[in-house]
Amino acid sequence: MSSESTLDDEDTFKILIATDIHLGYSRRMLSTNQVDFILLGGDLFHDNKPSRRCLHTCITMLRRYCMGDKPINFNILSDQKVNFNTTQFPWVNYQDENLNISIPAFSIHGNHDDPTGAEGLCALDLISASGLVNHFGHSHSVEKIEISPILMQKGITKLALFGLGSIPDERLYRMFVNKQVTMLRPKEDQDEWFNLFTIHQNRSKHGPTNYIPEQFLDDFIDLVVWGHEHECLIAPTRNEQQLFYVTQPGSSVATSLSPGEAAKKHIGLLRVKGRKMNMQKIPLNTVRQFFIQDVVLADYQDIFTPDTPQVTKKVEDLCYAKVTEMLEQAERERLGCPLTPEKPLIRLRVDYSGGFEAFNTSRFSQKFVDRVANPKDVIHFLRRREQKEDNKDEVNVDYGKLLKTTAVEGLRVEDLVKQYFEATEQNVQLSLLTEHGMGKAIQEFVDKDEKDAIEELITYQLEKTQRHLQARGVTTEQDIDLEIQRFRDSKKNTTEEENEIKEAINRAKAHRLERAAASEPKPAGRGRAQKSSAATQSRSIMQAFQSPSQRSSRPGANKSYADEVTIEDSDEDIPVMKTTRPPPRPASSSSSFTKLSSQSQSQSTKGVAFDDSDDEEDDPFKGPSRSRR
């Protein structure tokens, strides 16, 4: 870009966007481009419980390249106790008087490093507690999600950073449809804010509800940073219905040998000035090369058929030629990139349907053991299934109409309970509880994490049945069984049954709240207004059916739950000059927020321009304003 002074002035946010921290490579770009902060779209760690070596490396990188005396040139205006409500240090790390942060990092959690266990913690919380990363976008509740933005200001530019950590796709899909997801916006000067949303969910459709359609997101958003999908599509694409842009950074390393991983890996340098943006994609040259190719043996009828003599040898020779071809391509592309690992990842997928035989892949792989990084799985044999006709009902989905419905149509857990007891034998039918009551209790357990709902329903029904038998004066075993059956049948599908279910669920909620209050530690130090989350013990459905005598006492229950690339190959460290650090900036609360449901009212103007051409004019942010609706 031609005008450096216009590009990087006191009003321009410079944000390094990635789906992995990549500090080992990115340290040169952090110092060269003088970014304001790093934004990570989830899956900082590949494993939910990363190894000590992995944690040590991550902490070392963050301390080495994100700490220093460089002043922070933007302010946070929102209530940080709301933005960082999962930590006992509810303020951004660069405002901590005990830390010296030069480049703050903000991250949501992904599906690989998501919070688990009794306390609902993840590896990212460990890094956050140490003050090296700002973990945001963690929702505790499974009944309602309110996404409150981190409001930032640099000069005249106002940035609202929204984030939502990974949630099971089916559950989040249902919550969007049921209008249980709300995004908060400042009431004042809404048109002056650039709205940036970070999400970590399935973007491509893997099932009827196993993804999040872009149309579910609010239309006031300007740019969506979409994590979880591994294919690198970092150039922002426009959603013509919602009129926002979506950038998909993809995974920074190949974690599987699939076609989506073969695309060139990039990170993004996002510049935001006013309501306009510019994305500069920067290739990663330390990523191991990955090449994948498909071979359909049936397409080589002119060379061999299943009946050809020594056909297996000819197929093996063909595969050898294809793998050698990919290795030669890798060697050509590696020239001039000394940081690229020498051995590439190679995958040849061979479709041998049509009567062909598979050869010994282990013996074949021995030929490339010194040339590839994955010698054991270079060849992958597969048979193509016949493609079924596309379901015409799923071609055009009216998401606007879908969001107006009150519930997701489909099979629910209570339906499964009902179907089970309708199909099961008589000797395993319920004798005390009703199918409807059991289904409701299990639904509360699964959907709303009410871990005591099943136990409380059983206890409540047992107590009521005992009182009924005592009032009737029934004593013999045969009479007791008959009276229990009559008493149970008399309540089926009645108001009394509904009231009993509600009472049992309310008792379960009351017990959870009592335990949460009893186990809540007293806050101390800075940020006293922030209450700590109560601990709970993880329980399965089978444990929920056990009586109190069958398990130990439980602690408190959980709260609901234009390409311009500058790359330097030198690995030399850049010395940092010590300077006097300005005093930490106090956080001021945003005056007020307004709620918007997952489908908000259309705004009159948006005015976001994306410029990624190679030949920019003097104003890199110049672009026509766009009409909203």
From TrEMBL:
Q: What organism, scientifically named, is this protein from? A: Dissostichus eleginoides
Q: Which family does it belong to?
A: Belongs to the MRE11/RAD32 family.
| Molecular-function annotations in GO | 3'-5'-DNA exonuclease activity; manganese ion binding; single-stranded DNA endodeoxyribonuclease activity
- Tell where it localizes: Chromosome, Telomere; Nucleus
Where is the sequence biased in composition, kind Low complexity?
Answer: 587-604
Query: Spans of biased composition, class Polar residues?
Result: 530-555
Q: Mre11 DNA-binding domain location, by residue?
A: 277-445
The residues annotated as the active site are: 112 (proton donor)
For bias kind Acidic residues, which ranges apply? 565-574
Q: Which InterPro entries match?
A: Calcineurin-like_PHP, Metallo-depent_PP-like, Mre11, Mre11_capping_dom, Mre11_DNA-bd, Mre11_N
Q: What is this protein called?
A: Double-strand break repair protein
Gene3D superfamilies associated with the record? 3.60.21.10, Mre11, capping domain
Keywords, A to Z? Chromosome, DNA damage, DNA repair, Endonuclease, Exonuclease, Hydrolase, Manganese, Meiosis, Metal-binding, Nuclease, Nucleus, Telomere
Give one GO biological process term.
meiotic DNA double-strand break formation
Q: Specify the superkingdom.
A: Eukaryota
Matching NCBIfam families: mre11
Q: What does the record give as cofactor?
A: Mn(2+)
Q: Which GO terms describe its cellular component?
A: chromosome, telomeric region; Mre11 complex; site of double-strand break
Summary of the function given for this chain in its UniProt record: Core component of the MRN complex, which plays a central role in double-strand break (DSB) repair, DNA recombination, maintenance of telomere integrity and meiosis. The MRN complex is involved in the repair of DNA double-strand breaks (DSBs) via homologous recombination (HR), an error-free mechanism which primarily occurs during S and G2 phases. The complex (1) mediates the end resection of damaged DNA, which generates proper single-stranded DNA, a key initial steps in HR, and is (2) required for the recruitment of other repair factors and efficient activation of ATM and ATR upon DNA damage.
Provide the residue span(s) of the region labelled Disordered.
512-629
User: Tell me, what's a Pfam family for it?
Assistant: Mre11_DNA_bind
